[in-house]
Amino acid sequence: MREIQATITRIAQVQIDSINVVRRAHYLPFFSRLGPYDTGLVDRAAGRAPRRLFEYWGHAASLIDVTLEPALRFRAERAGEEAWGSMRRIAADHPGLVERVLADVARIGPVTARGIDQVEDGRAREHWGWNWSAVKTACEWLFWTGEITAARRNAQFERVYDLPDRVLPAAVRSVPTPAVVDAHVELVRRAAAALGIGSMTCFADYFRLTSDETAAAVGTLVAAGELEPVEVAGWARPAYLWTAARRPRRIDARALLSPFDSMVFERRRLRELFGFDYRIEIYVPAARRRHGYYVYPFLLGESFAARVDLKADRAAGCLRVLGAWVEQDADPAYTARELSLELGELARWLDLDRIETGARGDLIGDLTAEMERQPR
Prior knowledge:
Blueprint: H1 2-11, E1 13-15, H2 28-34, H3 40-47, E2 53-57, E3 61-65, H4 73-77, H5 79-82, H6 85-93, H7 95-108, H8 113-119, E4 127-128, E5 132-133, H9 134-145, E6 149-153, E7 159-162, H10 164-167, H11 170-173, H12 180-195, E8 197-198, H13 200-206, H14 211-223, E9 227-230, E10 239-242, E11 253-256, H15 267-274, E12 295-301, E13 303-313, E14 318-326, H16 332-349, E15 354-360, H17 364-373
Parallel strand pairs: 14-15
Antiparallel strand pairs: 1-3, 2-3, 4-5, 6-7, 8-10, 9-10, 11-12, 12-13, 13-14
């Protein structure tokens, strides 16, 4: 758990996503940084005392370092301006329903929206947004405003709602709400610590702040000596170094990164620092995908060496490598060897018995040959 906590402290948040092609997105950043680990540790950090993570809107829906809850209260206070239209409409058009849902959570929580739906008499039957029931939409409004929170996710990946005072640590709840400008400084501070180096856009993107909010916070951090203006070769925009960042002479990394990993949040940074042009193609029609549905960047040493389209076929007990592509300056043979080792670790972590390779990509031949050479 110390290693899990160190990762939480370092990257501040892990994005949540409902797609489960390999494993839920919030488990994968820990695997990328720690190797095979017990996912029950993340479940404990996000669902039991002492709670280390809480769910809210960070970069997107995310599990966030619980100590940042006070710095994100401003987002709850802006729900009337920033929440999705369906949520704002239900709050405006059906305030009685919202009040009843809040009372239901207080009375029977922790509870899912479906659980409330089953006990709520006279509920509105209209559907909102993505065909959510009115009760679900009311729950999401209350979640955004901070009046309820997620105690955990259940096996169906539904939010299980409860009151914040029954979920969040008392030590966090008792922290006075900071001034909005101070909250922005704290969020940019944590973004800079996670990234090490970045532009205003990189820092803004990490917690979805505006450019003006970020610029003011960066100015404060530069004045305090926590950020240092620097030049980055090939960048035409100002860059800033987190002054406490480690700068080792050599990095021997080997990691598969989820499409939702914080290292790949900001695509321009990824392209300009690493020469790695990456696009998530989950939402691209199949016929127009260049690489695949759920493609993992492969970090090797100090550069991205490949990308791999993966699928965990749990019924067959198999990790399927649907395609693999080598990057332009990478050595295919060395990349295939190191990638095969990383895939082996991933398969073991997923409790899959074997790895099968497909036919797509210019690295798939070398990778298949390497996999066949490995002892079974």
